[in-house]
Queue: 2 jobs
Job 1
Amino acid sequence: MATEMNLGMTERLVPIHKEVSEMIREEISPLDEEYLRDVDVGDRWQHTARQTEILEGLKQKAKSRGLWNFWLTDSSSGFGLTTVEYAYLAEEMGKSHLAAEVFNCSAPDTGNMDVLERFGTNEQKEKWLKPLLEGEIRSAYLMTEPEIASSDATNISMSCQSDGDHYILNGEKWWSTGAGDPRCRIYIVMVASPDDERSRHQQHSMILVPADTPGLEVLRPMQVYGMDDAPHGHMHIRFTDVRVPASNIILGEGRGFEIAQGRLGPGRIHHCMRAIGQAERALEMLCKRSLDREAFGNKLAQLGGNYDIIANARMEIEMTRLLCLKAAWMMDQGDPRAAAPWISQIKVAAPLMALKVIDEAIQMHGAAGISQDFTLANAWKHVRTLRLADGPDAVHRRQVARWELKKHTQEKV
Amino acid sequence: MATEMNLGMTERLVPIHKEVSEMIREEISPLDEEYLRDVDVGDRWQHTARQTEILEGLKQKAKSRGLWNFWLTDSSSGFGLTTVEYAYLAEEMGKSHLAAEVFNCSAPDTGNMDVLERFGTNEQKEKWLKPLLEGEIRSAYLMTEPEIASSDATNISMSCQSDGDHYILNGEKWWSTGAGDPRCRIYIVMVASPDDERSRHQQHSMILVPADTPGLEVLRPMQVYGMDDAPHGHMHIRFTDVRVPASNIILGEGRGFEIAQGRLGPGRIHHCMRAIGQAERALEMLCKRSLDREAFGNKLAQLGGNYDIIANARMEIEMTRLLCLKAAWMMDQGDPRAAAPWISQIKVAAPLMALKVIDEAIQMHGAAGISQDFTLANAWKHVRTLRLADGPDAVHRRQVARWELKKHTQEKV
Amino acid sequence: MATEMNLGMTERLVPIHKEVSEMIREEISPLDEEYLRDVDVGDRWQHTARQTEILEGLKQKAKSRGLWNFWLTDSSSGFGLTTVEYAYLAEEMGKSHLAAEVFNCSAPDTGNMDVLERFGTNEQKEKWLKPLLEGEIRSAYLMTEPEIASSDATNISMSCQSDGDHYILNGEKWWSTGAGDPRCRIYIVMVASPDDERSRHQQHSMILVPADTPGLEVLRPMQVYGMDDAPHGHMHIRFTDVRVPASNIILGEGRGFEIAQGRLGPGRIHHCMRAIGQAERALEMLCKRSLDREAFGNKLAQLGGNYDIIANARMEIEMTRLLCLKAAWMMDQGDPRAAAPWISQIKVAAPLMALKVIDEAIQMHGAAGISQDFTLANAWKHVRTLRLADGPDAVHRRQVARWELKKHTQEKV
Amino acid sequence: MATEMNLGMTERLVPIHKEVSEMIREEISPLDEEYLRDVDVGDRWQHTARQTEILEGLKQKAKSRGLWNFWLTDSSSGFGLTTVEYAYLAEEMGKSHLAAEVFNCSAPDTGNMDVLERFGTNEQKEKWLKPLLEGEIRSAYLMTEPEIASSDATNISMSCQSDGDHYILNGEKWWSTGAGDPRCRIYIVMVASPDDERSRHQQHSMILVPADTPGLEVLRPMQVYGMDDAPHGHMHIRFTDVRVPASNIILGEGRGFEIAQGRLGPGRIHHCMRAIGQAERALEMLCKRSLDREAFGNKLAQLGGNYDIIANARMEIEMTRLLCLKAAWMMDQGDPRAAAPWISQIKVAAPLMALKVIDEAIQMHGAAGISQDFTLANAWKHVRTLRLADGPDAVHRRQVARWELKKHTQEKV
């Protein structure tokens, strides 16, 4: 084990963290509700003028203050924060609906930009990475398919036939998050590239598909417990003879999983830290409500098992945050393979913890908790998706177990 | 303990159960989806012609077959089923969105009819009970208020001033389930009737308020994790100088809790048994999906902890069903006070169990599980409300604990 | 489903239950502690004079009152109680250390007597069943082996070679419960009888081995969390060329699992109902302690999550008891194969529930709870063994899951 | 939040950690079993010659290598390790029965030495601290009393009357851990010093009582699930007119809680880290067993929910360890009041986690797991006491909740 594992904030982070937290608390969060209310005005899949004004206004503020692209860790462009440092900021961003995008730190763009930065050609970077880094366009990542168990990603089967200097894609993708946004211009698509010469994890490729390519058809928005997340959206998209230049492939045929491995690590840490931010906010709401209302002659806080609920929430938040910070620190050590077990651990632990805390906060609010009057029900739905996105709990537990068993055997487990 | 506790189906129930189950499976369930889809057509709070056709058509069929008002247990009108017998039917009704209403067995009408039948004057019965029993109108029960912790029902504070031979009501109610339905004509409203002469549980009354009384204003539909349940709805209603004749009071001033005690018991059993029906349906879906899809070279059923998940679901469904049947049997013994601890037990146990099973079924379906493609996400939201409706878990656990402690002490606990 | 499922006490059971309960409460339980204390006097593996006096005295009383061999359900000898009826008595017996033996209803004798009654030859019955029914001798059941995973009983490998009209047994058995008792005279031993002609579940036999057969060597008592359960004991026994007449085989070669199937069902129900009795006793102790002691100015009962702990315990006891009664009722329907899934369910559910309740009772007692001053720690250890005896939880869950899946597929699961 | 929170090993710790780990693995652990077996030889409450040889031999080795009194953190004597550094060593010591004492780092001596070092007079230090630091004598800490709920320590009521320049003590203490050891020479005793002038937490004192003072009577050893932990022991001690010089009081009358506050923090961290060591050892055993044994044609590791069990254990160990290290780091910041909430958190979290992991390891071992053939059952019993020692879970959760609520209110909670 290394001799330094600083999981606290660094000196350079402290002022940035303060600035980001304050901007979220004072400038961004107060606009969340208005932005979300406007979704129901006119076409759900277009921004209203007011939405654009809110979002672009905040983005300009953040950008002009230099609070931009924090996710670009370990980099000469951007802040060059460590993953641990960024994790602290991601937690804060989790407390507001708009915050991550305001700082150009929102999924799925961060993961997509990461792929382009590490593996893209100069041409690909110029065309797609640059406007993404500027916050001018958005992107989507098309992986999951309706007809197969995507929990085993080797099942992915979208056809990608070579045709001269082009590829022709056919099939369906769904849960293409962000593809509903009119600003979304580019998809990174995982496709099958079967080749008997290559191993089981070298049968897939990633390829760039502009959102306006003929043959693409958005069938419908998928709903999360009835919520369509418009105008961001989780879209179901059909590909019919979609032609893209061969140069759109990233890194080369059969290298899809190699890219995915790198892409998903940081993104999962960000998701988990944002979930912790949501848990913190929920616990704060829970405590305040328990102090505000009375029943049977006592504050709710003092009734029944509420002390235990509060204490358990605090303990589980702390433990989960520390685990996420440790995973971030592992990522910062430069060996993604060594960090992978830690990322699988937090991918299981953080959403489960956050769901539990949010659910308790809902229960403490009574019927108000499940209603539109508080953000809790929406927060719950958002976090619930994380138990499925990027691999369901069971797959990550399976990975963690196999790493553990390999400490004790040479055989395949 | 009594010497017979038949928790199985009686001979007379078997053919009824068969007829009801088959009608649900073959005639009602297949129309659920079409009915729900039509909610988004035109005014959400009016039935489309097709919705009316579906619902009234099914109701006529059920009524003409004599499958009607089963909930009217222990009664010369209706079937006179026992609560245990009815519980078996309620479980089946839980498997379909429309079924309970088709058999005129849906909440909140059953509870309201029960109140009127037991405690109503002849005039009240003629005016409201009769059309409810015929399925011609619907009703709502207005209890919970936004400004107080309704978990302690003695907090309820809607003002009800006597004014000659009228009462004048002022205040707000919310989560008035069913009040969105255009067929909803009558509310039973819990109001405060403070009187220092009476005890703490004799400070409230129930009063009948026709839905078209001037001064009533539906402020908005409350949402359940974003779902408005239109056109049924959970409405937020403001009362401004609402005048009703003094004869609309039920049983008399200060007797609200006395009525509530009787009203809530059977309704809670019905809710719980329907939740068990939803759990059964979810487990069936879980098993089928686990057999249909493959990952890592195996059926999902055979992977990881899925055997354990399935086995635990089966065990918990069985245990919870038996507890509900026992509670129903206690109710059939004729002493609601003796049955009360059992009803509090199932009120906690059944929704928690059903939520767990449905959540596992969702997880087994992957992202499809949280989407509009399966009924699971909606089922989860419906059952989630049961942890709050008619008293949150904590209040019922508190009651169960106090009954337990009273076995061992004479002192107040 | 059948049209009557009486899970209550029958009329004929009521007076028996009263007599048994009273004898346990007033005559047997008060002697438990003295009996157990005497284990530490002299040779732990011999009864002291006082132990014999206590135990045989109580047995004579019970026998003379006709309170004897209740377990012999569905039988012309004995009471001919149903399994459901007996289950109620077993629960009472679970509340005292000595009670089951006092009524000649203790494991492993009941299971062994059951085997002999159903499958024994007249000679076997005369020699072993008769004195067992009279309570003159005791017996053991030798199944588990140290070198294999006995959770998969097909792993059992004790050698049993035919040698003329004898068999010669070699190998080791452990956890031979009751084999430490000087009154234990006969073992029923599961041995391997490999035969390629027969199926996987026809490779084992059961054979009678008198405890004084040469070649038997008790190596040591196994300990349960340090407890040796003397003088009953869970013995580790080595077989070295142990010769028994061929006529000692039960039912015939290869029929061991066929016998086990029948033997284990009722025994598991008894174990589970006794565990429920222990849970009831623990909950009573928990409540009393919570009312007796004070901290922070309140009775313990009123502090923190104690209401929730008490309520959950009550609910889980009730649900588990009902499931056990249902399993007993299934057994009474005469088709052990149909009852098997139910027995697997309670085999998992009842010990887990009882352990949880006892653990909470221990925690409520503070350090006294884990000490020799209360029976709770011992109760916990006894019940903990039930999660392993007769198959670990995981194996029973596996069975329950497979039965569930078979409802939905013709394929092997 | 501070700008550095290094929870990893420091450079100076790495070689020490290696030396300590190796000595435990290679020299100490291999003797654990022999030492424990000798408890049953002769008088359980005296060391056999072989026990003395093993223990003193190892102590001399450790001392001569300078591996001694690591617990003496933040100190010029000893290593002056930080609490975080020591925590890593405590985890290793948790893996062996003897290790903590071998390095003179065992409870309750460390806590007692800590009290004497911080608060003792020079005379007290000379007489008792010096030989304790040398490992020549041992000590006990007498707090809990049989007749009161010690979870609320203000209930403690041992009488301590001033009598000239002496105090006279009367009452009973139990669970006096280590008082069974013949080398135990000195007790630190918490007594009541009621004084209406002082606040509720200034009504108690700590006083030194030599173990050979007349009037002390060891009534019996308390048992932990039947285990007496001889010759260390948890003794029940009666005080009858026990006279000690007034100079034996520590810090002064009424300052008992002030001392306890300081004393208990580090001790709780040590206990928790040792529990983590036990969990790690249990997980290792679990994995190895799951790879060694087969059932139903597969390694146990690959069956049912075992991947999930292993993954959850790994995740929970990691999270709990990080929380303990954070609590240790808080302690190192020099403000025990700020560290207190963290210590309460780990006091709840670590034993619960370790019990769960050990219980799963037991279950994976089948009946062997609960037997004397593996250390698991003993480990479970040891860790189980930690849920009660130094305050039961409920009291610590109460504290954590109150700290949390105080963030949101000025009122008393």
Job 2
Amino acid sequence: MGTGNNYYKADLRDYKFLFFEQFQLDTLLGQGELEDWGKEEVETVLDGLYQWSCDVLGPLNGSGDRQGCRIENGRVITPDGFAKAWKEVYKNGWRELGVPPEHGGQGGPYSLYVATDEIQSGANTSFAMYPGLSEGVLNVVLKFGTEEQIKKYAKPLISGKASGTMCLTEPNAGSDVGSNRTKAEKIEGTKYKITGTKIFISAGDNDFTDNVFHLVLARTAEAPVGTKGLSLFMVPRLNEDGSDNDVAVGSIEHKMGINASATCVVNFGEGGNCVGELVGTEEEKGIRQMFLMMNHARIGVGTQSLSVASSAYFNALEYAKERKQGASIKNWKDPAAPRVPIIEHPDVRRMLLSMKSRVDGLRSLLVKLTTHTDHYEFGQLDDAQKAYHKGQVDLLVPLVKAWGSDEAFDICSTAIQVFGGAGYTQDYPVEQYCRDAKIMAIYEGTNHIQALDLVGRKLGQKGGANFQAYMKDFGAFIAANKDNETFASELAELQKAQQAVGGCAMQFLGWFQSGEMALVPLSANRFLKMFAETTVGWLLLEGAVIAQKGIDAGTGDKDFYEGRIASARFFAHNILPTVANSADILRKADRSCLEISDAAFGKVS
Amino acid sequence: MGTGNNYYKADLRDYKFLFFEQFQLDTLLGQGELEDWGKEEVETVLDGLYQWSCDVLGPLNGSGDRQGCRIENGRVITPDGFAKAWKEVYKNGWRELGVPPEHGGQGGPYSLYVATDEIQSGANTSFAMYPGLSEGVLNVVLKFGTEEQIKKYAKPLISGKASGTMCLTEPNAGSDVGSNRTKAEKIEGTKYKITGTKIFISAGDNDFTDNVFHLVLARTAEAPVGTKGLSLFMVPRLNEDGSDNDVAVGSIEHKMGINASATCVVNFGEGGNCVGELVGTEEEKGIRQMFLMMNHARIGVGTQSLSVASSAYFNALEYAKERKQGASIKNWKDPAAPRVPIIEHPDVRRMLLSMKSRVDGLRSLLVKLTTHTDHYEFGQLDDAQKAYHKGQVDLLVPLVKAWGSDEAFDICSTAIQVFGGAGYTQDYPVEQYCRDAKIMAIYEGTNHIQALDLVGRKLGQKGGANFQAYMKDFGAFIAANKDNETFASELAELQKAQQAVGGCAMQFLGWFQSGEMALVPLSANRFLKMFAETTVGWLLLEGAVIAQKGIDAGTGDKDFYEGRIASARFFAHNILPTVANSADILRKADRSCLEISDAAFGKVS
């Protein structure tokens, strides 16, 4: 145990396409805070990290899954090789992109940061959660911590001396964060006594950092009920003098996947002596502070989803090129015809292109989101422009998280199908990808929570301004391509889908106004899917138009461009036509599941 | 290890509804070969087996998964408790339904046999594969064996002294059965020397029977290439004198699921001394003989799929009734509103009813199939009537296997979603159901092989007579209900779907005739799904009409009937409207995946 084969496979060309051809990240590089960053620097990071991830993280992915985590003497023992890999991550500076320069980091574009997250997560999803969560905690500390807190907590997180976790969930407070019961009693100043049990704490402990910084949502005695009464506390495993704080890992979960990420029960204050520090100086700001981390984590889950889906695709593709089985359909009547690689079979090609189009689509969606972030963070913009970019990010977060994770699970399952029986065995990585992917639809806000966020908050945000701006951008693309004959049929499908999405958005408004509140959550998931698919259809077609120009100009890379065009065509003709159909179903709003009595759902014999 | 909780949950009421209200199995009972069978006998078997399965098989399901199988001294060691359970199965006579009375069995209706298969498989999928495969071997022996072979092999299989396996797959012959290379050289009479390696042999060995009867597809020296040159051999692990035959279990696979079912590599004749016996007296009849077992196994996989999907549904349902989280949507603005069981949330109800409608639908599809078999086997019919029933079975087998297994995987995944994070842990059975279910889309002919069977063989079988008879029955149901106002909107959806299916069947004919052969496999899976959904929509509505009559007549069981009606309505309004949409996509036949070059699929960096 401890090392095995690397199965991680990616095509970095796609990032280079998205960054520099489609989303024009280069317009932001070489100036202002990104003065030191050019195309070459971005590519160097991607290439170097990919190589390192394949060398170090990839070989630990399967072995980590088989070995899992365990508890010894009150601490989590991670799989063989993880501690060494952790040290290398920080020594090599692979997480410095997430750290501002004033704290010694590289402070590069967010788009690049997320790309590096995909690479680390694709090579080893479980491993990448440890530094990923630490970085989320770092962000909160840097943004909301006092100067003294930053001094105390940021450095160990940046150097990898400490790790971090986010502690929201309790036995009775999962999706319902507002039901949190963990108690905080003021001792003095920013010091509080913390008492409570948190569950499902990802990367909750490890054997490579002495200290673990837990960010804990808790409630002070006088605080109101619900999320508004929550405060956020930093609760380190070790006190400042190095003694043990009253924080104990109770147990770890045995799970379907991400087995090398320790999912912990963490008990705070069992002995009545757990000391935490209020983040910042004000109580009852916890949910807003935690949201920074949750947003980071939601984009992170979309990135994770992409990472396994993409590697599942490339593994399936390589297998399909090598594995011979059956004769070509052209020789279907001749039992003696030569056997061919299965990529020649139409159904295998269909599966592969359905995977590829969604992988390309999800990465496009993610880079659209991160580019908006980069414009917001690094662009020379007025307030209105800033608000526009911020609004687009808000709108896209639930899509990236929920559509991404649902599709990733399906893509990984399709990868198993391409492999056939071999894919069901642990001889190949795809069954693990599938098991790992399932949690992504659940944690950091279930996909229904994402859908509620979309229809209940994001659509109507700022009086609908973000959605309107989105629709305007969308319309501009369609208008700009109205004479495009190469993609005329695809653009027609896109326009139909866009109209369907617009109609459904109005339908939600109608339900809100008429008080038919139950129809909103009932239809929220369906709408999120339609909205995401339509957006992906748009971005893939935008990419295809660019790719076609590349082919026409003879600028090389014809295979890549052709693949991008095929993704767009496949998606336009196989996925987009379902959107208007979904809109019909949504608007008719079948109420059967609301009307059925609980008893009629059935009775166990 | 060895025992745990029973999580198996079923509602036997549904079988009683399907048998005696919808498909009128009782018209066949109490006469002819079913003289000793009445409603009461059928119910007694179901109730008794369910109780026993919950007591004995259910508690071994989780522990069997965790423990898995291993090889010791050349034999497979199954998980704790399996050997004891095997003995009880045969002592209690739970497999006697699959045995004709002349061989000491109970010879009951096939519908009941399949129902008992669901129960055993639902309680413990991996375990049920051992007796299930044995029974498949028994069927082949009884149907194709010589009198002497029946004498030799049937009794140990019936008593549970021996188990059986089906050995088709080889390293280079999976979906492509015709590429089988295992060699058979005649020694004398029916005795042959067998040499070759078979892989993915389910229930390939065990530690509860001394002898294992392997049914092996192999090729004699002069035989033609392809499936037509294959012969079938009985290759026992032990020779008649009790000495070891030259049969060795090489290794077992480490898999995503069904871990307690030993998936073996079996080597025949490594020492040059493996003796097999030709089944029957003629060579090159192997594929036809094996097809009996494959048909049995395909229906078995549909049954397995139903079994885990159904138990996943009931586990999710019970959890949803118990687990409190969040406030009712009616109080969405009040953070202090009381917490409610999650079954009150619209999205949870949507998930549950989407699961229930498909579970009800798959069971209806299966009982339709088995009722046709029962009419064929036990009805007093002329040849034309027999052919009709046989034809409907042929048509339905690929639907039950492929649609069943695809939906089962999705239903189990949805069950995890209902549980949230808890469902991802091994504290509940749903993650195992999901892992177990994935193989069902692959083995016994991948779901694409099923789709090819449907469009390439079954649609056109007997000049299309089977499909036409199906459409006639379908049309008769619609005609009989043309004035039904209660389900008018649902019937309208059904009719639209039926027309779409009919249109697509003609489209396939067109592609065959115009030589656009690649479009057939390209669209086969899509068509199978449409066809299955439309059939399920029909059967659910037929059930709903009966349930409504039951409610109107006040014949009790109102909850059950209401649930059946809700299933039909949900399916009609959420699934059936996608069928015509799929038909549009199918007919437009997007060729992007055929046109893309292999290189354009992408290149790993």
